[in-house]
Structure formats: C-alpha cells, structure tokens
Amino acid sequence: MGQRAGRPKPKRTFKLEEYQTMTAEADEESSTEEALETCSQKLQEICGMADSRNGAVGLYNIGLNCCLNSLLQVFFMNRQFTMILRRIKVPFEAAEQKASVPYQMLLLLEQMQRSKRRSVHPLDLVRCLSMHNVKLLVLYDASQLFLILWNLIKDQITNVNLVESLDLLHTIQLQQNLVCQKCSAEMKKESNLLMFPLPMFDSDSHPVRTLGDSLRCFFAPEQLVDDNACHCEQCGLETPHLRGLRVTRLPQTLMLHLKRFCCTEGSQTRKISHSLAFPQSLNFSEILTPEQYNQDAQEDDGLYDLFAVVAHSGSANFGHYSAYIWSLTESRWYCFNDSSVCQVRKAAYMWRCACFPSLPPLPAKSGSEI
C-alpha cells in the first residue's frame, strides 16, 4: 500500500469531544469562507492515528481476527481516513450506534489513543461486524475482508461529501479499450477498482520477481477469446477482442494486492510463496507506457511512498496476518502483530518479511533507526 509522496510533520491531536465541538461550530458558521478555512486548517492538525499519544497500540486477538486487526491498524494509521472518520454523523439511537461500523471504528480509535496500556480489545467493533455477517473463527483473505469493511463503511456514512472523500482516497479509475479483431471497431468502457490485483506469474507462467514487472503484466494487452469474447455491435456477434487498460485517475492511497493464493485442479487453495521485491517509492510514469498512464493528462503525479504492508505467514489453509506500517508521527516502521507491537529496525528486513512471511519480526533496539 502506498500514499502520495511526502510525509507531513508531526502535529498535535484533538480529543473526540474537542473535534465534535469544532465541527459543530464550523457547521453553524458554514456560510462564511473564513469559517470553512479555519475548520480546514484545524482538520489538518488532527493526527488521528493509533500511535499519536502513548506510542503504537496493539489489538488483542479474540477469535482468529488477526486479519481484521492488521487492516484496522492500516486504516487508523492513515491520516486521510481518520480525518473522514472523525467527521461522520454519530447515530442517535443506541441500537444504531452498536450496528454502525464507522462509529464503532471511531470509538475504537479513540480508545486506542487514550489507552495507557499497550493493547486494547476490539470487542465492540467485532460484535458490530458480526451483525453484518463478518464472523469470528473464520479465516479471511486480507483483500476480501478489506472490501467487506470498505463497503460497510461507505454504505453507512450518510454525508455525501464524506462518501466522495472516501472514493478519492482509494478508488482507481480505469478505461478499457476493446478492439474487435474482426472489424477493428473500438469500444471504451470505464471501470473502478479499490486495489490492483497483481499477478505473481507472467503470461508465460514465469514467476514475476519485482512489483514493476507485476504491474506491467497487469496492464499488458490481453486477447479476449472463446468464453471471454465480447459482443461487437458492428459485427452483431461475440467476437475476439484485444483489451488494453489505461489509468484515468489514481487515488490518494493506492492499494496493491499480490495474488498469492490460487486454486489447484482439485479446487484446493495453494499459496504462492516466491519472493517479489518492491521499492519504497513508486512512480507510475516510469513503469507504464504513455498509452497506459499519461502523466500530462492526470491531476495526480503518479508518485507514491510505501506506507503499509499486510503480510501473511503460514499456509493457505492456516496462517497468520501482521502489518508493517510507517508511523508519520515518529518517522519509523512498526510491526503490528495483534497485541504485540515493535519497531522494525531495518526497512530491508521488513521487505524480507513481506516476501518471505514465515520470518519473525526483528526485535527493536532503543533509539534504533531504520
């Protein structure tokens, strides 16, 4: 996962009640540009991270919820997301509060910020998720659970502007260019993604070894034939098509999903464990062709800094998730392993953990730097 290049300086935090008072005052004065500008400046000062007060705080595992814990830590350490979360409308009825995923996430974030302990229990949020069929004692894939959480959060936020902000935060906009291989008629389709599902093998079934190569494989032109053939209006038939992809907009926070799980012939799930190197900084204009990503036509610059890695250890049928996240307030990497949180001494070791997730986290030394 990456964020726009550039890391802001550490700033002070607000308590939940202070923030709600601030936004209420801004709403009353929303008719003036000065009031809106003041509120915007104060919003920039909100750190909104789980590590903002007493150091990084862990989450207890209460029923095979290591995947949930890892994703929650990534959400909470994302400045843009917590700014949106703090602006939600609090449900009035107690039953609605218990069933509101955004509100329960906000309460958990505040609990983590105020806690004097190194870990807290996410029990209320887990109960809330269970009302929406997200069960305990179930092994989830991180990308699958992220999509479930994202849809619940987005569906339960009533403020249209906040929903738009959520879309800007993670939504990738693509354009598919379909060319009929019989009559050469072209058809364009717009589509949205929340993450790039990146292959671990190229078209010749050779292992992909770098993130750049995996992105190039994803964007490579593809022949759509047989069952994947598309309907051509000019031919009036299902015909083979050549599909090309082009990025039309990149989000503030880019999600990349390495497809390490695949199905075998016997419908068994297998984990792909070969290493794949990825850089600390990513530049789309250096990876994709001008036809796939035209930087001059984009509002964004296509530059990202690595912000978080959600790593899986173990086999496809039984494993464990942990998260490696960059702390903006302390300018260092942390390993979040449920209730255990430690600094990662060297970035290179964290990259190895992501490529070879069976490795345990390296214990931190006092005052150590990455």
From TrEMBL:
One of its GO terms (biological process) is antiviral innate immune response. InterPro entries: Papain-like_cys_pep_sf, Peptidase_C19, Peptidase_C19_UCH, USP, USP_CS. One of its GO terms (cellular component) is nucleus. GO terms for molecular function: cysteine-type deubiquitinase activity; ISG15-specific peptidase activity; molecular adaptor activity. Residues 57-370 form the USP domain. Pfam families: UCH. PROSITE patterns: USP_2, USP_3. This is Ubiquitin specific peptidase 18. The lineage of its organism: Eukaryota, Metazoa, Chordata, Craniata, Vertebrata. The gene is USP18.
